[in-house]
Design a protein that fits this description.
Layout: H1 17-61, H2 65-95, H3 101-112, H4 131-157, H5 160-167, H6 177-209
Helix pairs in contact: 1-2, 1-4, 2-3, 2-4
């Protein structure tokens, strides 16, 4: 699970060549499926945690949608920090005898940000009670915490203010050579047609304004 969540504490590593080869194959197969799983879960959670609440408040009280989305994103971030950083940090500072609150909060941040330095790993003490159950609980916490972090990031990415900010860093799409040739050809064709039309108009104008007679077989005829 540590491999799939991109944390990689480094405290447990394969030593044999067979184990290292299996770890490579296991990661190559497992990581894409984990990404697909997390993407699907986050998109479904976004419907109930972000999109529907924002639309409901927007239509119910006729408030600005951008304002509602910004307030909602801030509240969601505060709830996430409280539930997956502050409260777990207090729990770890109690369960881990050598950790204080700052070290526990540091572990939560390093883990959920997928940095995974490995300098703090819970459940490694010799006198740890219910060690196996403790490890399972930590795995569930990391999985849920990572999903919550992705939901918060996706919520902020959908804000109109951030969308405008991201557009500043987008590269402008340059027209390809084929499109340029087509545009130039159309421009030349339009110019030639315009020149021909102008020439015909000038010729008709000259004929109308010219009072000179036209020679015919029977005699001069004045237009």
């Amino acid at each position: 699970m540590i491999l799939f969540l991109f944390i990689g504490y480094g405290h447990t590593v394969p030593l044999s060549d067979e184990g290292k080869a299996f770890c490579i194959v296991y990661s190559v197969v497992g990581i894409p499926f984990t990404l697909l799983f997390l993407t699907a879960v986050v998109q479904r959670i976004m419907v109930f945690s972000t999109r529907r609440p924002v639309d409901y408040v927007h239509h119910r009280w006729a408030l600005s949608k951008s304002l509602v989305a910004g307030v909602h994103a801030g509240v969601l971030a505060i709830i996430t920090v409280s539930c997956f950083f502050l409260i777990p940090a207090i729990v770890f500072s109690v369960l881990e005898e050598e950790w204080n609150f700052l070290e526990s909060f540091y572990f939560c941040f390093i883990s959920l940000s997928t940095i995974g330095l490995g300098d703090y790993v819970p459940g490694e003490g010799y006198n740890q009670k219910f060690r196996q159950l403790y490890k399972v609980g930590i795995t569930v916490y990391l999985l849920l915490g990572l999903i919550a972090m992705l939901v918060v990031l996706e919520t902020f990415c959908e804000l109109q203010q951030l969308k405008k900010l991201r557009k500043m860093f987008y590269l402008k799409k340059e027209r390809t050579e084929d499109r340029l040739n087509i545009v130039d050809h159309d421009h030349l064709s339009f110019s030639s047609v315009s020149d021909q039309t102008a020439s015909v108009r000038e010729f008709k104008t000259d004929l109308i304004n010219d009072p000179s007679p036209i020679e015919v077989n029977d005699g001069p005829v004045v237009r």
